[in-house]
Task: structure prediction
Amino acid sequence: MTTPTIEVTPDIRAAVLKAPEQFDTQRLRRPAAGPGEVLVRVSFTGICGSDFPIVSGTHPRATLPLVMGHEITGTIENPGDSGLTEGAMVAVNPLLPCNTCGACRKELRHVCRNLRLLGIDTPGSMAELMAVPAANVIPFSENAPTREAALAEPLAVAVHAIRRARLAAGERVLIFGAGPIGILVALAARHAGAADVAVVEPSVRRREVVEALGLRALGPSDVPAANEHGETASDVVFDCAGHHSVTPLLTQVAQVRGRIVIVAVHHGPAELDLRELAFAEQEIIGVRVYESADFAESVRLISHRELPLAGIPISEYPLESVAEAFAEARSGTGAVKVLVRSLP
Result:
């Protein structure tokens, strides 16, 4: 098998994952925008839990060396003939569907059977500049908050989860997991009109963040069983934890005909009480990333400051400190969201 190479020609700075757990800041050739592409000067890259297997060398698709990063915000450096404005702040949708499989032909490109992502299957945004398809670029309105803008991609996941859940105003919501996605789902649920939003989280510090955002926080021992709470049980339950200890609880906490929404990525078989699911006529709803409309709605919500995103603790690291950024993100004890800053 031929080992991929990254050509080293001084022009832009980039953080390169050379081998598992080994980052190096290098000077790479300045990218050129091809047909249908624009050049983006990267501001921030968010670190995602799905990045961790890449760093450890266990991701099934990522091939090293690699410039990582799929949570991308920046400004237009060269718009080409895209109609975008030079200097405009933008978010980049990292999904690269094949456009030929059955899902793509049904206009469900986010569940493409051959889906690829910037920063996983192709070079990503932990660099100063990157060329991306113009169709994947969504501009923010003027004066959108720069740091909060870096949450556009994970917020799109939350927007999609709320839409898939068919959440109606006045419904009660329970969320497992107060990581970035869990907190964003909670904020999006409240914005959508949920009457009560509670988040189950073992970390005391994360529960404090949840409460500071005006949401209800519960410890694992406080999880409310539906058969004890009747009409006040949860209408919609979101699994944003992806932990084997959570899945057996999902059918217990959802009420009759409740909806159980699987947002987290599970990495193996999970225990679920199918008898209770059937007897209570509950639904399980899968969620994978987002559709283009969800990404656009995320950018709109941030542009108009409709969610209190400034209340989410965020850490920033320069490109030269990517290893330290991943150490904080993996620890689970630091900021809720960790960003890598490409700007000097």
